[in-house]
Design goal:
This protein is α/β, with parallel strands linked by helices. Helix content is 32%, strand content 15%. The protein has 6 helices and 5 strands. It has a 5-stranded mixed beta sheet with strand order 2-1-3-5-4, with helices on both faces.
Length: 191
């Protein structure tokens, strides 16, 4: 894709992949320019979301970003904390994150997924004003929806490998399949 096309995608919004009965609603930080240009979540080459989703057992094969609507048949969806596309997440203001958190909360209250999975513990900390949050299940809920902070699958997050991310995504998958953290031994032992 040419740089002009990416530049033209700045500030675009891409639609959520969302519906009733979701086991997990994944929440990215915000769309990158490649995602905004293509209209597909986690579309930048090098982003590890799609491989990790498959390796963790959420999907039977690795989906392409253009196949994002197939997530619904797995009981999965995607949204973002902030809707505006940027080249880097640090281009977003703290207020955009807070407003995004209010909008995200309203979406979760409307759609009531079993789990909200925020991909990026830093985004979780900012949105929910929880500076001590760590990767894993959180004590906070939105209604009956449990929240899990996952590692950011961006290729820039080099201290998490595909394998270690798949393990953490897999822990969430086990909890989601069990119907809730209370039914998964040890999931809440270290929030």
């Amino acid at each position: 894709m040419r740089q002009e096309e990416l530049d033209a995608a700045r500030d675009r919004v891409i639609p959520d992949v969302i519906g009733d009965g979701l086991r997990v609603l994944f929440c990215g930080i915000n769309p990158g320019l490649m995602s905004a240009a293509t209209g597909h979540h986690f579309a930048r080459p090098g982003n590890r979301f799609w491989p990790v989703l498959h390796l963790s057992g959420f999907t039977e094969r690795q989906l392409l970003p253009a196949e994002q609507d197939e997530l619904l048949r797995y009981g999965l969806g995607i949204t973002n904390t902030a809707a505006r596309a940027t080249a880097r997440a640090d281009e977003l203001s703290a207020e955009e994150f807070r407003e995004g958190g209010r909008i995200l909360t309203a979406k979760v209250e409307k759609w009531r997924p079993g789990w909200l999975a925020v991909v990026g513990v830093t985004a979780y900390r900012t949105v929910f004003n929880d500076k001590k949050a760590r990767i894993g299940p959180q004590e906070r809920t939105i209604g009956s929806t449990r929240i899990w902070a996952l590692p950011n699958p961006s290729g820039l997050n080099a201290h998490w490998t595909v394998g270690t991310m798949a393990e953490e995504f897999g822990r969430l998958r086990v909890a989601a399949e069990a119907g809730g953290a209370d039914e998964v031994p040890g999931v809440l032992s270290d929030p």
